[in-house]
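Subject: mismatched residue count in predicted assembly?

I count 735 residues in my input, but I want to confirm that the predicted structure covers every chain. Input:
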Amino acid sequence: MQGAPVTRKGSPWYDPKIRGYVYQALLIGAVVYIGYAMISNVSQNLARQRIPFGLDFWDTQAGFDINQALFPYTARSSYGDAFWVGLLNTLLVAAFGIIFATILGFLVGIARLSKNWIVAKAAMVYVEVIRNLPLLLQLLFWYKAVLEPLPRPRDSIAIPGGALLNNRGLYVPEPVFGAGAGLIGAAFLLAVFGSIAFYVWAKQQQAATGRIYPIGWVSLGALIGLPALAYVVTGGAISFNYPAMGGLNVRGGITVYPEFIALLLGLTTYTAGFIAEVVRAGILAVSKGQWEAADSLGLPYSRTLSNVVIPQALRVIIPPLTSNYLNLTKNSSLAVVIGYPDLAQVFLGTVLNQTGRAIEIVGITMAVYLTISLLTSAFMNYYNQRMALVER
Amino acid sequence: MKTIMTGVLAGAALALTISAASAQAQRSTLDQVKARGVLNCGSNTGLAGFGVPDAQGNWSGLDVDYCRAIAAAIFDDPSKVKFIPLTAQARFTALQSGEVDVLVRNSTWTMTRDTTLGIAFMATNYYDGQGFMVKKSLGVTSALKLEGAQVCTQQGTTTELNLADFFRKNNLKYTPVTFATADETRSAYEAGRCDAFTTDASGLYSERLKLSRPDDHIVLPEVISKEPLGSAVRANGDSQWANIVKWTHYAMLNAEELGVTRANLAQSLQSTNPEIRRLLGVESKLGEGIGLTNDWAARIIRHVGNYSESFERNVGAGSPLKISRGVNALWSNGGLQYAPPIR
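Triage response: the counts match. Full output below for your records.
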């Protein structure tokens, strides 16, 4: 070693890189230890108190019925099936809620900026009232508002088209697919793809020549016309099972329960109030010059809004919109107060109480809500990246 | 929201207090209650006749009397009870986690609950069965005519399970509509959401009184299940505490059988009947054997009364519910209430 250049690096403790690794290892060790200690402590003590721990209840027969199930579920199904029924019901109301709240929220948000004084003030009153009342109260209000004015089953309101409405829900005709129904489905799919192709073509034409094609009308015509044509050609392959009064209640058709309607109304109107403000903020964030530029090109107001302002506003709107979507999904667990069988009501309520497995069930429920929220978040982040301003 | 929060909180509390419970395990429940100076009794959030607070916060009811009797036996003071109102959902978790010492909350004794929840049922203080209530205007006179009905019930109860069994057994279709609390269930039924309302028969009579027009509703004759409502404690091997809870009920039954009442307690203490003398601790040291004083049963009678007195005052002739003794009569009168002898 003699004669070799001595590189004095000093003690490894003073190397920031090594120190960083040491600290991180310590932190990970501490987290793992705390997790382990919690789990082993809980399971030991549960065993000492003779409370079983584990997921063996999952396949046990549930023994209770649920009114709204998206797949066949009976009292003979398992607790695991009950979990899926609850989860799908949560996703169902969240999906519809997000779609309707977005539409209503955009309309109200744009209305608040309207030059028409009455429209703008009405939108403002809506936003202020809705945002400042507790959602729980609003849900109870909607439930009463749905139940109270509707008649008993015997005096059901007949809605044109064969649907019935009473205080047990909305009964809509159920399609029954006969021979040749596949052709109608194929016609519908053709219309969907045709509309998409036409949209792409029309946009290219617009970019190249400046000519604007009536995309909306053409798509609508195709989506209704093609299946209708197929229906006539196949000689009415789809028939309908119409709801009718029988015994104590309406029989037949598909039932939309009052709990679902009330929850959807409550979540939609409440979240729309917040989305409206997000939309307003997004539109106001687009610089005035953009409006003036569009005006000077002679674009009408609606086109300025849809082609110039909103695409730019979306960059500001999407991140807070995401958190409103997450809130709506989480708020759907308030369904318990009006008896809508969502995940919280079925799993955290009934299944927990029938099995007594509080720790497992609360843990699973938290994990599920977390997963739904993270997935929604991930999708919205992806969408946000696509919409973000591309710096050139 | 309240119920989810109680579910979540109860779960979290269970996880935390179970770890804390190891320190307490060395001390018997009786010692803990004595050190605290008050009995924590898990009670209904409000069921007339069984456990309900009045406007001043004074609790009354058959279940409430049971807890007062335990407190009387321990402290010679029936007011040393803290009633903790629990929903159907939170009740067993609250007992498991040690939030309450004893659960007397019209809870049905079933094998699942007795063997898998870490709790043990002690004594049945009310034999009940599930029934249906409907509006008179519906024109239904039997539960077997409820084909296609929508039925309101409380979730997480044995009621919900019996309902499914009943309709399955009789091959009838129905739609359940479930709510977290009895109040929500009743108000949905009253608003016309359901054709029928189902719970334990005692509960039906109690809930019917809360309807705006009770006379417009009838209880159908069918009783579709066995609902032995009883007291429960933690199944942690504390047999002393289990004995106190069990024998409190039996003391009240034995007192009724022997004709010992609040009014005649002074004379009864002078009685020459050896059974009465043993019950009241004049001629026995049985109370000391379960960690109490020998006059434990005399204290119960003095402060609360015997089973019959409690029954009539809370749910029987002396109450708005006017429920007859029925199967809850003493065995010697053809009922099911039978206490092992105190000797």
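Strands of chain A lie at 157-159, 163-166, 169-172, 174-177, 238-241, 244-246, 249-251, 254-256. Marking this ticket as 'not a bug'.
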